[in-house]
Specification:
transmembrane; repeat; signal; 393 residues; 5-stranded mixed β-sheet; mainly beta; monoatomic cation channel activity
């Protein structure tokens, strides 16, 4: 009796994270012919060094999940099947898996002398293989472009989302996007003026400070957006915000305002936080908890983040501040916050809570936005291994 495998093997791959000595998750499905004089016992997956890295001992199985260590952006596998009598088929033809995270799109752009014309360059994109397709979407309803380097003229000033989708010779697809503020150079924009005031700038930790940027102005009377950087790794948006400094140190709070034409201005304020007197006691800490209505999907994906299960440091305390960072430059506040992801990628949602004693805790959760192709692959596992058994002559 011989147990044989065909030469053609396809694979199904799900992965996240960087491609350097990490564990990859493979999901394999197959169909197998059955013969009356051969009893299948199971199936095995081997890596390039001949190690059995995954095995299932179920003759009726049609799929298996395999976690394998991979130290590069690609790796090679073979497969076998084995019988109840201990016989094992020869190894299949080796097949190489290229990981999608080796495909990284890059957008470089510049405004030309014509104020509405921009040049776009995707040649900085990288792949473990060869990039075969470039698709530009300029976010203004115009036709797409399919060159690695291209030009586009917008018909009016405004904010546009320009996206680039690339595909390589392994079939992997990735998309990235940039926000562009198109301005008319014949009517130059005057930059805004940033101004900060604060309830205090000196105190002991935890030090709660109310910041106010509403004194900022714009000579053209354009509406302003407000982004705060508190100098301790925390950020916020809005004209008026509150922040708690937990650790002693010297900090610089910075406000950046931006007008509707994209011009920015910044102002800073020094903050001095001293350590509190040590009482020699240990107090409990608050606990931040995130619950998401969805963690995977295709863009645009509407995600609701719920922090109502979070708890303060004491049973009689309350949580006074919920700060959300959705990992794509967007932020939010409140116990329940919603956000729509519009671009493919993996995002880390960060929740920071502050209770009425000034104590904080942080929790994170991940959301993966896939292309239609990736999402369908993750749900229906289109790749099939065909394992055939033949009688030994």
């Amino acid at each position: 009796m011989r147990i044989l495998l065909p030469l053609l093997i396809l694979f199904s791959l799900m992965l996240t994270g960087p491609a350097l000595a990490v564990q990859r998750h493979l999901e394999i499905t197959w169909t197998a012919a059955q013969y009356s004089d051969v009893t299948i016992a199971g199936y095995r997956l081997y890596d390039a060094t001949g190690n059995n890295v995954c095995e299932i001992n179920d003759p009726n199985a049609t799929s298996m999940l395999c976690d394998v260590e991979v130290a590069d952006n690609s790796t090679t596998f073979t497969m076998t099947t084995f019988s109840t009598t201990g016989e094992e088929s020869p190894h299949s033809q080796p097949f190489t898996v290229y990981f999608n995270d080796a495909l990284v799109p890059s957008i470089q752009y510049a405004q030309t002398q014509n104020s509405f014309t921009y040049s776009f360059d995707a040649t900085g994109s990288t792949s473990s293989g060869t990039i075969t397709n470039y698709t530009w979407n300029f976010g203004d309803g115009s036709a797409s472009s399919y060159e690695s380097v291209t030009e586009h003229t917008f018909v009016a000033a405004g904010e546009y989302t320009v996206s680039l989708t690339i595909q390589d010779d392994t079939g992997a697809i990735q998309t990235t996007s940039v926000q562009i503020a198109v301005t008319d150079l014949s009517n130059p924009n005057n930059p805004p003026v940033a101004a900060i005031s604060a309830s205090t700038t000196v105190g002991t930790s935890p030090l709660t400070i109310s910041f106010d940027g509403s004194g900022s102005s714009d000579p053209d009377n354009d509406p302003l957006t407000y982004v705060w950087n508190f100098g301790d790794g925390s950020t916020a948006t809005g004209a008026q915000v509150s922040h708690v400094y937990l650790a002693a140190g010297n900090y610089t709070a910075e406000l950046t305002v931006q007008d509707s034409a994209g011009a920015t201005a910044s102002a800073t304020l020094p903050v001095i936080v001293s350590a509190p007197t040590d009482t020699g006691t240990t107090t409990p800490e608050p606990t931040a908890i995130i619950s998401l209505n969805s963690t995977t999907g295709t863009a645009p994906l509407y995600v609701t983040a719920d922090a109502t299960s979070s708890t303060p440091s004491t049973t009689t305390g309350t949580i006074v501040q919920y700060s959300w960072n959705f990992g794509d430059g967007s932020t939010g506040t409140g116990p329940i916050a919603s956000h729509t992801y519009s671009a493919v990628g993996t995002y880390t949602i960060t929740l920071t809570i502050t209770d009425d004693s000034g104590k904080q805790d942080t929790a994170t959760a991940r959301v993966q936005i896939m292309t239609e192709q990736q999402y369908k692959a993750s749900r229906i596992l289109p790749a099939i291994y065909k394992l055939l058994l033949f009688n030994k002559k």
